[in-house]
Design goal:
10 strands; about 40% helix; two-stranded antiparallel sheet; alpha/beta; 12 helices; about 10% strand; TIM Barrel; about 375 residues
């Protein structure tokens, strides 16, 4: 049976005194020391990087477009477009075209405007976007997760089984590697035991050492668990967390304090609260299209005012929606008084219209 999971920072600091197995204790000691040194070096190098070298690095990022804003993905050192392509394609049925062509058209337009990252979090998404990137895999960064065969599934809570899952998905999608393996975890993540956390981090580390994952991270809907994982496992480079147009930085004990301290890259999921922000259907000829596009831009501008967020990752179902995101990045970042009031009204409607299965998003008002 797995050991119980440490529930608070005090117990985490003294975890070596608990009755973990020798294997787990050795793993924690060795990998944490190595990763801690890497973090220190990354932070030091970031502090001394000249603006000239930064501009040079950004210009070499995949699908670079001088009109696009790019943000550094924490200690990975990657430069990522300030809005990225989320893997989900909700409402894609409103598009009057073949599904594969739709995904290809969206990916093509992303490349044209400078969006350079795709987040694929389940098998069908990985297969769809791998197909869209066939023959030009180096033109975009792509993350993957096999959520049905990762630690949410009790059969995949060992390093061995997680590696088998990764290997099978890479083979099926005809990829030699992923830019980011970000294991999808329980919500709340604290439902996992400590041993499961060790197993998943060991799998991430192994994949990185074998060249199957360039960078590694986790996705969860649990703030405290994210905090624990970042502090206890310096190997973690990227996290994915919910961040909507209603979210705010907590006035104290914010997760973003930990994120900044450890130089973690952050992708914000559910920026539009599973489309609850919008009035229309997302169809190009919907009478609410213009207002919904404006709401989307206001939300993105608001979210990006948080410098700790590398990028929100909305699911986009048409080239027009890609263009709308690119337009948002060209608009003034800070909302004026009228815009703030407009977004507040839209977000109030969003909150009131959340489906039952997304009520948990209200727990992410303060992060």
């Amino acid at each position: 049976m797995d050991d119980e999971f440490p529930q608070d920072p005090a117990s985490i600091k003294h975890a070596s005194k608990l009755n973990w197995s020798g294997t787990r204790r050795t793993f924690i000691r060795n990998t944490s020391l190595i990763a801690a040194g890497a973090v220190t070096g990354a932070l030091a190098s970031r502090g001394h990087a000249s603006s000239e070298s930064t501009e040079s690095a950004i210009s070499k990022t995949p699908s670079y477009n001088p009109d696009m804003e790019y943000r550094r993905l924490g200690k990975t050192g990657l430069w990522i477009s300030a809005v990225c392509l989320g893997g989900h394609w909700k409402r894609v049925n409103v598009m009057n075209q073949d599904f594969d062509k739709n995904r290809l058209d969206v990916v093509n337009r992303c490349m044209e405007v400078g969006i350079n990252y795709i987040d694929a979090c389940c098998r069908s998404e990985v297969l769809a976007y791998s197909k869209a990137l066939a023959g030009r895999r180096d033109k975009m960064y792509m993350a993957l997760s096999y959520c049905g065969q990762e630690v949410r599934n009790e059969k995949y809570r060992t390093t061995k089984k997680l590696m088998e899952s990764l290997d099978s998905l890479l083979a099926e999608s005809k990829q030699e590697y992923t830019d980011l393996w970000r294991i999808t975890c329980f919500e709340p993540g604290g439902k996992h035991t400590f041993n499961t956390s060790c197993e998943l981090v060991a799998a991430l580390e192994k994949a990185k050492k074998q060249g199957k994952a360039r960078f590694i991270g986790i996705s969860s809907h649990d703030r405290q668990w994210h905090k624990m994982m970042i502090e206890y496992f310096p190997q973690i480079e990227v996290i994915l967390l919910p961040y909507t147009a209603r979210s705010k930085v907590a006035p104290k004990d914010s997760l973003f304090d930990t994120v900044k301290k450890h130089d973690i890259g952050v992708f914000g999921i559910k920026p539009f609260a599973s489309n609850s922000l919008f009035k229309g259907s997302s169809s190009p000829d919907d009478p609410n299209a213009e207002e919904d596009n404006r709401r989307a831009r206001l939300a993105i501008r608001y979210i990006l005012c948080n410098s700790a967020i590398t990028a929100p990752i909305p699911g986009l179902i048409s080239p027009a929606q890609v263009d709308n995101m690119a337009r948002a990045l060209k608009e003034r970042r800070q909302l004026d008084v009228a815009e703030a009031a407009e977004l507040e009204q839209a977000v109030d409607e969003m909150w009131a219209g959340l489906p039952e299965n997304y009520q948990w998003l209200k727990n992410w008002e303060y992060v």
